[in-house]
């Protein structure tokens, strides 16, 4: 049965269209179980009724004609209960309903199982047989397993057909798809599908024209690709500025690395022709990145694929004609990359949608820097069928609508106008200080990990850097960066913001953030060897970084150092010992190094309950809500199956933040919040009420967060926090806070996220 299941799923995934997928299911199941009838009923998104969409065994003319409410018939019973129904004589059941057009009066045995995808009922899978019998456990288990396996494939095929006007029974307007919010904003435009420069998987194995010829041909293609990327980098400078092109440097670095060029050359020397050698090298590198736990590193697989296609396009030149990119066009792709973005006119780009990727993708990072709405990870997106179709993009909630009707389009047009007006108003306020209505200053700083963020951070009114993720430069290299490399990098950040504070977080790798040249394989990486644990176990790496941070501060007095993933006092003591050692070494070498302010990142539950003890030993605490909320709720927010459970306004999360704030303040130390919660307008009210001393957010969120702070008094925020303590779930809390935002004249922030 497992082999049958595998083959059915494989065939369905390869089906040409929706109806072929349904036909494959009913025919294969009927044959595999040796039964008389197999049928699929799907729930209409418009009427909510169950429609017979495919059958092998019932009369053909009944397909598409038989439908029922979930309150009717045995199929409706399966749907309403969302559990299997197994009967030896269907006609004897009180919920039995007879449809003469099906000819099913001859079938007594009935087994129906629900088809459920992401908690939503898609339909019912039914098998029937002439003789009276109850289907055995093997049949029931097989159908349940099959329905669960096929739910995603059916959802994809259904969405694919929904965007086509030829589908008679499934609605084809306002087709909604959900992904991951990549960059905030809303947009309306025509889809432009990103062109694939070369199809890597189609390259055949064949005899080359000789090793020397193939090596020369490949070398020329690499050189041409390097020139192409340098040109793209220069072009992006017109939109982003020279400091923001570090992402393209990663591409140039890959072109000179063993992982791509040298391995391809080795394969050529072993007898492969250049395109096939490149194909195999790219596949190998992609597998390495895709097997990594860290979302950011998994995204690098897309960069390797994109770079491989670029080289291949010079090995196998392809004729390509590009239509003029429309104003407000929506760039859509299976796996969008930074170079796809560079190939379109930025001033005409309305939004971006990618079937793959997350908020840590290079393309999402650039989208946020450019304030372009983006939705990532729309797994059911049939990219090839979207060219030229009208799409509405909601970058706040990670949603898009294909083929919108007039009513929905008008609503989005209103939101786009409000967004434009809001952006203009906020731009004028960006440089103003963040103070509450009663004069309490709450500095808003920037989260960063790239030099590309410096210029937009300053322009957005950032009052410093609250979190600089030093692991990002480590991730885009093929080795640990040396001390002087790190010094130059950190000094640029410190100098750019001087005298404003810059908080450099020490290397936070391991767990879900492994380096390609320092892999960590564990059964449970989130609870394993990560963060400060790795740093303490490898003092040679840690000391190099600490020395670099301190040397970078020799001409500046704005350095703050933050230790990640602290869960015990011994870890903090160990980190401080190495920091003092690094400083003493530099003093002995003749450097004048001021002692920086030291902070601890509170992102594991243990640190919540040790907040006062930790605060007494450092200068400040910084709450990393992204990890803290995941640990408190046991939810991986990058996992689509449980992402809906991730909510920073969960009562437990609010209580934990109050515990941290109270503990830090008892010790007389300030506390900051640097996770995504700090960028949520509703959450900002609560953080003000708790007495959080500063916030650190992504560049694009700074003006909005400042607007919230300037619109509330501390008394009002404290009163709202007191009300939220009495509520029992996140939805109630968010509703209360959103109402408060509207009452304060900040309704634009609420409406933008509730399209």
Automatic annotation (TrEMBL):
GO terms for molecular function: kinase activity; metal ion binding; phosphoenolpyruvate-protein phosphotransferase activity. Gene3D superfamilies: 3.30.450.40, Phosphoenolpyruvate-binding domains, Phosphohistidine domain, PtsI, HPr-binding domain. SUPFAM superfamilies: Enzyme I of the PEP:sugar phosphotransferase system HPr-binding (sub)domain, GAF domain-like, Phosphoenolpyruvate/pyruvate domain, Phosphohistidine domain. It is found in: Cytoplasm. GO terms for biological process: phosphoenolpyruvate-dependent sugar phosphotransferase system. It comes from Thioalkalivibrio versutus. It comes from the Bacteria. Its EC number is 2.7.3.9. Its cofactor is Mg(2+). It catalyses: L-histidyl-[protein] + phosphoenolpyruvate = N(pros)-phospho-L-histidyl-[protein] + pyruvate. GO terms for cellular component: cytoplasm. InterPro entries: GAF, GAF-like_dom_sf, PEP-util_enz_mobile_dom, PEP-utilizing_PTS_enzyme, PEP_util_C, PEP_util_CS, Phosphohistidine_dom_sf, PTS_EI-like. Its main location: cytoplasm. Belongs to the PEP-utilizing enzyme family. PROSITE patterns: PEP_ENZYMES_2. This is phosphoenolpyruvate--protein phosphotransferase. Keywords: Cytoplasm, Kinase, Magnesium, Metal-binding, Phosphotransferase system, Pyruvate, Sugar transport, Transferase, Transport. It is an enzyme of class 2 (transferase).
């Amino acid at each position: 049965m497992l082999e049958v299941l595998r083959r059915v799923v494989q065939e369905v995934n390869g089906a040409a269209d929706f109806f072929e997928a349904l036909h494959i299911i009913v025919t294969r199941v009927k044959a595999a179980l040796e039964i008389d009838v197999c049928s699929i009923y799907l729930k209409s998104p418009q009427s909510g009724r169950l429609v017979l969409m495919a059958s092998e065994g019932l009369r053909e003319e009944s397909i598409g004609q038989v439908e029922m409410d979930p309150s009717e018939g045995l199929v409706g019973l399966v749907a309403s209960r969302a559990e299997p129904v197994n009967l030896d004589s269907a006609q004897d059941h009180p919920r039995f309903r007879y449809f003469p057009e099906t000819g099913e009066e001859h079938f007594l045995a009935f087994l129906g199982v629900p088809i459920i995808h992401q908690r939503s009922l898609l339909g019912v899978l039914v098998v029937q047989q002439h003789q009276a019998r109850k289907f055995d456990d093997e049949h029931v288990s097989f159908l349940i397993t099959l329905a669960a396996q096929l739910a995603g494939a059916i959802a994809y095929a259904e969405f694919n057909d929904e965007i086509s006007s030829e589908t008679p029974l499934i609605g084809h307007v306002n087709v909604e798809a959900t992904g991951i919010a990549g960059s905030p904003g809303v947009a309306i435009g025509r889809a432009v599908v990103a062109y694939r420069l070369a199809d890597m998987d189609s390259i055949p194995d064949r005899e080359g024209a000789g090793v020397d010829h193939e090596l020369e041909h490949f070398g020329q293609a690499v050189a041409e690709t390097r020139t192409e990327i340098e040109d793209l980098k220069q072009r992006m400078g017109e939109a982003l500025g020279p400091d923001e092109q570090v992402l393209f440097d990663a591409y140039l670095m890959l072109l000179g690395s063993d992982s791509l060029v040298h391995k391809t050359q080795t394969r050529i020397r072993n007898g492969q022709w250049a395109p096939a050698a490149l194909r195999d090298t790219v596949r190998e590198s992609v597998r390495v990145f895709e097997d990594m736990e860290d979302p950011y590193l998994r995204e690098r697989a897309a960069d390797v694929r994109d770079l491989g296609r670029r080289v291949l396009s010079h090995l196998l030149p392809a004729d390509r004609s590009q239509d003029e990119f429309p104003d407000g066009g929506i760039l859509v792709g299976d796996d969008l990359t930074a170079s796809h973005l560079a190939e379109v006119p930025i001033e005409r780009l309305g939004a971006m949608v990618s079937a793959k990727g997350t908020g840590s993708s290079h393309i999402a990072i650039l989208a946020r820097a450019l304030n372009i709405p983006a939705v990532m990870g729309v797994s059911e997106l049939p990219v090839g069928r979207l060219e030229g179709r009208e799409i509405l993009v909601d970058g706040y909630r990670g949603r898009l609508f294909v083929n919108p009707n007039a009513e929905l389009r008008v609503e989005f047009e209103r939101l786009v106008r409000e967004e434009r007006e809001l952006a203009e108003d906020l731009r004028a306020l960006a440089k103003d200080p963040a103070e509450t209505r009663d004069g309490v200053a709450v500095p808003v700083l920037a989260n960063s990990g790239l030099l590309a963020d410096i210029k937009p951070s300053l322009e957005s009114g950032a009052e410093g850097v609250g979190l600089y993720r030093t692991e990002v430069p480590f991730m885009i290299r093929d080795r640990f960066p040396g001390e002087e490399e790190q010094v130059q990098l950190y000094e640029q950040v410190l100098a750019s913001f001087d005298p404003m504070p810059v908080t450099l977080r020490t290397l936070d790798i391991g767990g879900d953030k492994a380096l390609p040249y320092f892999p960590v394989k564990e059964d449970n990486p989130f609870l394993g060897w990560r963060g400060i644990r790795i740093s303490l176990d490898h003092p040679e790496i840690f000391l190099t970084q600490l020395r670099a941070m301190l040397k970078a501060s020799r001409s500046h007095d704005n350095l703050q150092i933050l230790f990640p993933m602290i869960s015990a006092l011994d870890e903090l003591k160990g980190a401080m010992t190495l920091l003092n050692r690094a400083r003493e070494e530099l003093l002995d070498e003749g450097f004048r190094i001021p002692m920086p302010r030291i902070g601890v990142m509170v992102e594991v539950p243990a640190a919540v309950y040790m907040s006062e003890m930790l605060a007494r030993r450092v200068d400040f605490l910084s709450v990393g809500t992204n990890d803290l909320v995941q640990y408190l709720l046991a939810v991986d927010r990058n996992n689509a199956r449980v992402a809906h459970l991730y909510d920073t306004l969960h009562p437990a999360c609010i209580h934990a933040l109050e515990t941290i704030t109270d503990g830090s303040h008892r010790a007389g130390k300030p506390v900051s919040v640097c996770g995504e919660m700090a960028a949520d307008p509703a959450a900002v009210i609560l953080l003000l009420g708790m007495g959080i001393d500063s916030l650190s957010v992504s560049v694009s969120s700074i003006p909005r967060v400042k607007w919230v702070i300037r619109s509330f008094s501390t008394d009002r925020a404290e009163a709202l926090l007191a009300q939220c303590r009495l509520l029992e779930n996140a939805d109630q809390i968010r509703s209360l806070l959103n109402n408060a935002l509207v009452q304060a004249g900040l309704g634009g922030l609420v409406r933008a996220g509730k399209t």
